[in-house]
TrEMBL record:
Biased composition (Low complexity): 346-356
Name of this protein: Uncharacterized protein
Ranges annotated as biased composition (Basic and acidic residues): 328-345
Domain of life: Eukaryota
Amino acid sequence: MAHLVKKKRYLGCLWELETVTLPGGAPTTDFQHWRISFGMQKPRSSKTKVLRGVTKEAIEADRSGGYLHKRLLQACAPQNLYGQDYYFLEYRMPEAPFTVRVKIDRVDQVSRAYDEFKTIPAKIQRRLMLKLIPRSLNPEDPIYDSRPAKTIKTQLKNRAAITRHLVDLYLDGKYKLKDLGKCMDLTGSELRREAYQVVPVHERPDHEYLVAKRDRSKKRTLEERYMRDEITLTEYNDLKDPDRRERRLASEATYPLPEPLYTCVICGEDECAQIPCMECNNRACKACMLDKFHGDVDRPYALMHHIYCLKLGEPILHENKFARKRAEEKKREKESRLKALKEAESPAPAVVAAPKPARRRSLKAISAAAAFGGGAKTSSAGNNTLF
């Protein structure tokens, strides 16, 4: 489980941030705890281990990709594991429709998984479970190595490595000082045979090179190989003059042929596929790609490896009701904001004043107007006429 929240330790009367030590010796609070289940079955508490203090610096420091394998060996002790090229690390991000498999010996893939775990909220971290599974994806294949643990971690290729191994055996009390003194006077082949004898029986297949016969035959010259019909005249000239071989190949070079056609991983038809998979070397034909990933089919091309290459079928989609509800609320809020914005930007409608009603003149005013005007007058509205 990837913990992004810095955990605190209580020291009697104070709280202290929990830290881990980087490969260079400096402390850091940027680390994660990974909860790992061994096997393809449903995770159980008895088969779950926690790798504490996993840092990205430690992952990238071991360029051979053995950091995670060493941590797993420490976590599953006293059980033993196979080599680091035997396992996948499988996980599924929250709300993701498919799983992700990471090779534990690939530093770039493990680092990318570390960065992905950083994006997980703290409340969802407890749901994240990593699985250590065999790369064959066969549920019957064992997870743990039932063979005895190896005692020799390196190959005994030269005299210095063999001597160091014999000295370590002497310090552990498994080799006599008298025999160690005799080994110092042995020749190279005799020393290798002696080292092979002290190798444990179950590890001898890994160290057959100690007693393998070497080809000590005399190397023949190019002329002798040509006279024995081991090489042709063209091969003789190429080996004699490599620059001339380069010039000959350049003169014989032609326009490159088109890319060969492969067997389609979807329909199985031969010599029709050219579209490569994003994860492996499988190919798919144009007709299958149009049928399975285009048009009315709502399916991303990234699922080709999961469905057809790994033969795992359609991924199970997990609907998050809370996320759907939040999305609907955000959509309604956005629509209401856009509506309010449009109303604010639209011009206000013009207000037309209603006509004022005609003012009725009193009888006194009409009489006065008639006295001054000298006759009958009509009102301002045109509808009050006085005779």
